[in-house]
C-alpha cells in the first residue's frame, strides 16, 4: 500500500467534508471529524467510535472512499449517475463477472458526504494499471484473454422490457451522454437502429465543425447487426487483479448500457492520458480479440468529438 507524506504536521481535527479529503491519504474518522494520519493502521485496533478512511479517488463531482472496518466503498457526488448502480445489479444478476456487491445504505451506518451515493463491497487486489508494467508477455496475454472472456459474458445480459424497442441506451433507460452519440437536442430521441447510431455520430461530427470527411463519414463507420450490453469504459485502472493476475473485479460502470456490438472494442482501442503504456495495452487487447473492427471512421469522428 502506498504511503503518502502527511500534509499537516499537527493533529487538528477537521470536519468530515469532501474539501478536507485528499486522494491517496488516510484519515481517522470520529464523530463526523477526521484526523489525517501518515499511513494505514489496523482499523480493528481502533476504538469502536473510530474508523479508518482511505480516499481512493477524488475528481470534480465524484469522491471514492473506503471505510476499512467494514470493507465498504462509498462513491458519492453529483457526477455519480444512477446508471452505475443499475448496471452492476444487472451484471451480478445475470453473470458470474466479478463486480462490487451493492450494499443498502441503511446497512452501512456511516455518515454520507452527498445524497447521491453508492455503497459497495470492497474488491481485493490491485489495479491492472499498477500491475501491467510488471507483467511479462505470457501474463499480459492471459489477462487480456480473461478480459475478452468476461466481455463475452457481459454481452449475454438480456435486455429488460423497457429497452426492447431501443437499439442503444444506458442501463437505466436514461439518455446517452457519450461524446459520440449524445443528442444535440432536448428532449433526447432514442436510437432505434444501427443506422440511427451512425447518423447521430455523423450529425455531431458536422455540428462540431468536422469537415474532412463531411460526406464519407457514414460509410466509414463500423456496422453492427445487433446491440449488446457493454461496460463502455474498460481500461486498466478499472480492472482489479490478484497476485496470480486473475481478474477479481471490474469497476466504474457509469457508462454501461446497450450499444452496437463493436462498442467495447472501440473503447478499449482508445488512447487515454494514463501512466500505463497505452499502446502496449491496446496492442495486446487487439492481438487477443476474437473479432476485430475497422476503426477508421471512429478515429475520424474522435478527432473532432473528443
UniProtKB/TrEMBL annotation:
InterPro entries: AGP_Transferase, Aminoglycoside_PTrfase, Kinase-like_dom_sf. Gene3D superfamilies: 3.90.1200.10. Residues 84-272 form the Aminoglycoside phosphotransferase domain. This is Aminoglycoside phosphotransferase domain-containing protein. It comes from Aspergillus ellipticus CBS 707.79. Transmembrane segments: none annotated. CDD domains: APH_ChoK_like. It comes from the Eukaryota.
Amino acid at each position: 500500500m502506498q504511503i503518502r507524506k502527511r500534509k499537516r504536521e499537527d493533529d487538528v481535527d477537521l470536519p468530515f467534508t469532501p474539501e478536507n479529503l485528499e486522494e491517496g491519504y488516510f484519515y481517522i474518522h470520529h464523530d463526523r471529524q477526521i484526523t489525517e494520519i501518515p499511513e494505514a493502521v489496523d482499523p480493528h485496533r481502533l476504538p469502536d467510535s473510530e474508523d479508518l478512511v482511505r480516499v481512493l479517488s477524488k475528481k470534480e463531482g465524484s469522491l471514492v472512499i473506503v471505510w476499512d472496518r467494514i470493507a465498504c466503498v462509498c462513491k458519492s457526488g453529483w457526477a455519480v449517475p444512477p446508471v452505475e448502480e443499475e448496471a452492476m445489479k444487472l451484471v451480478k444478476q445475470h453473470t458470474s463477472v466479478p463486480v462490487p456487491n451493492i450494499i443498502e445504505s441503511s446497512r452501512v451506518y456511516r455518515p454520507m458526504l452527498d445524497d447521491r451515493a453508492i455503497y459497495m463491497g470492497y474488491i481485493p487486489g490491485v489495479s491492472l494499471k499498477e500491475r501491467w508494467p510488471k507483467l511479462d508477455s505470457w501474463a499480459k496475454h492471459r489477462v487480456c484473454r480473461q478480459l475478452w472472456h468476461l466481455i463475452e459474458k457481459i454481452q449475454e445480459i438480456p435486455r429488460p422490457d423497457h429497452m426492447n424497442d431501443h437499439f442503444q441506451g444506458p442501463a437505466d433507460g436514461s439518455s446517452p451522454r457519450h461524446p459520440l452519440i449524445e443528442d444535440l437536442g432536448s428532449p433526447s430521441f432514442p436510437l432505434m437502429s444501427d443506422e440511427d447510431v451512425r447518423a447521430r455520430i455523423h450529425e455531431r461530427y458536422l455540428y462540431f465543425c468536422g469537415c474532412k470527411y463531411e460526406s464519407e463519414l457514414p460509410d466509414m463507420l463500423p456496422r453492427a447487426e445487433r446491440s449488446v450490453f457493454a461496460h463502455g469504459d474498460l481500461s486498466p485502472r478499472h480492472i482489479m487483479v490478484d497476485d496470480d493476475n486473475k481478474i477479481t473485479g471490474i469497476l466504474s460502470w457509469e457508462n454501461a448500457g446497450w450499444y452496437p456490438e463493436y462498442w467495447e472494442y472501440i473503447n478499449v482501442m482508445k488512447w487515454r492520458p494514463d501512466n500505463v503504456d497505452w499502446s502496449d495495452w491496446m496492442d495486446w487487447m487487439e492481438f487477443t480479440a476474437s473479432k476485430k473492427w475497422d476503426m477508421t471512421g471512429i478515429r475520424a469522428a474522435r478527432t473532432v468529438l473528443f
